[in-house]
Amino acid sequence: MHWFGSLLAGSKAVLLRGIKPEWILRTVSEEKITIVWLLVPWAQDILDAIDRGELKLEDYDLSQWRLMHIGAQPVPPSLIHRWKSISRIIYMIPTMVLVSLQDRDVSTWALKIFIK
Q1: What is the DSSP letter of 75?
Q2: Other CB atoms closer than 10 Å to residue 8's CB: what's the count?
Q3: Which residues pair with 37 in a beta bridge?
Q4: Which domain range does residue 96 map to?
Q5: Cβ neighbours of residue 83 under 8 Å, at least 6 residues apart?
Q6: pLDDT in single tens digits along all 116 residues of the chain
Q7: How far is the C-alpha of 70 from the C-alpha of 35, rounded, in Å?
Q8: Which of 14, 88, 78, 1 is nearest to 40 (CA)?
Q9: Which of 54, 81, 99, 112 has a CA-to-CA distance to 70 between 20 and 30 Å?
Q10: What residues does 105 pair with on adjacent strands?
Q11: E strand spans, 1-116
């Protein structure tokens, strides 16, 4: 329960009844959510929906979104690269990053974020 500390500090938690990409982005926008916790498949689904043209980031007010925590399983470096290419999120914390010798840039970037 990584998010429990936020509740102790007086933050609000918003839980979704479903995980459709549209619901996630709409909720982040409407509830003015600053920290989003996603599983790898949910983050992938959002990116895929954007790629297919089903979602447009400009349709949502995501200006307050400053941190995305992805985890509970290995996070492929390609997923981090894709999010960085479309996102204005300041920090992204993958809990488990697949380290690839061919992709040192992502591995180094992920380690720098852990250190901050």
Answers
A1: B
A2: 7
A3: 69
A4: 4-115
A5: 43, 47, 68, 89, 92
A6: 556 666 777 777 888 888 899 999 999 999 998 888 888 899 999 999 999 999 998 999 988 887 788 877 888 888 888 888 887 664 555 554 444 434 444 444 444 444 33
A7: 11
A8: 78
A9: 54
A10: none
A11: 35-39, 67-71, 91-94
Q: d(Cα 59, Cα 50) in Å, to the nearest integer? A: 11
- Cα–Cα distance between 46 and 3 in angstroms, integer? 22
Give the domain CATH number at 82: 3.40.50.980
Q: How far apart are CA 55 and CA 27, in angstroms?
A: 14
67 within 8 A of 33, measured Cβ to Cβ = no
Residue 65 CB burial class (10 angstroms; 0-12, 13-18, ≥19): buried
Q: How many domains does the chain have?
A: 1
State how beta strands 91-94 and 67-71 pair: parallel
Residue with tokens 């009844």: 17
